[in-house]
Design goal:
This protein is an all-alpha fold. It has 14 helices and no strands.
Length: 310
Amino acid sequence: MTDGKTQTGFALRSFYLHRWLRLWPLYYLVLGLTLVLNVENAHSSFLWNAAFLSNLHVLITGTWSGRFSPLWSLSVLEQFYLVWPTLILFCPRRHLLTLAMMTIAIGPLYRFLCFIFDASPLYWCVAPFASFDQLGCGALLALCTKDVVGKAAQARIYWLAGRVCVPAFVLLLIGKIISFNPPGSSIYISTIASFAFIQLIHRTTKGYSGWLKTIFENRFLSHIGTMSYSIFLLHNFTELLVPKIGIFRNILSSNYKAMLLIPLTILLAQIAWRIIEKPILTFRRKYTATAPAPAYTHSPGMPGISPVAG
C-alpha cells in the first residue's frame, strides 16, 4: 500500500513538474516584463494572471483585460490540470473511457444550462465547464493513443469523429459563413469540432499522402506548431514593440497591419523558443529520461492526460 502511494505521488510530481517546466517560465517572464514596462492592464490583472485565475477575473468584473484577455484559456487549462491527473490515477482502468466521455458531456450540458438560464455570453466562454468537451476530447485522444481504450472502442470513436463529426463541423462552418446557424448550434458546435479534431490529429499521426502530406509535413508549418505556445503568449504584445513612426505608423493604422505583425510575432516566438523554451525542453527530456519509471496502478504513462501545449 505504501509503495502504491509512493508511486502515485511520484506520478503526480512528475506530471506537474513536466507541465510547469513547459508552461510557466515563458508565461511568468511575459507577465513580469509587461508589469515592468507598465503595459495597460498589467498591474490590475497581474495577480489574477499569476494565479491562473484570469477567467474568473473576467467573470467577476464582466470585462476583458485588454492584451491579457487570451490568458483566460490558459487559466482554464491549469484549473483542469489541478483535478484531472488525480482522477486518472485513481480511476480504475476499465472506467477511464466512461470518465472521459462524462467529462466531454459536461461541456454541452453546461452550455445548455447557460441557454436555459439566459446566462451572460462570458459564462458561455470563460467558465471552466464551458471547455470540458474540448479538454475531455484531448483526454480521450490520449487514451486511444496509449491503447488504454480497446481497439473496438477506438474504431467506434474514430468512426464517430471522422464519418459524423468532421462533415457536421464542415457544414456548421459553411453555415457560419453564409450566416445560417442551426438551432442550438452554440450548444454543441464546440463538441462536434473537438471530435473532428480527434480525427484530424489521429490521421496526422498515421500520415497523409498527396497534397495533404505536403501541407502537414511542411517543415516551416511544423516549426510554427512547435512555437505555437510562444506565439500564443506574445502575439498580443508584438504591436507594442513597433515604433509608431513613418511607414510603421501608417501600416499599424491600416487594415494591413497583420502583414507586419504576423512575421514579427513569428520572429519573436523564434527567439523565445531558442533562448527559453528549447533549453527547458532539453532539460525536461533529460529529467524524464533519467527519472525512474513509476509503476502506475492502472496504466503506464499517465493515460488520459492530453499533451496540450506540448
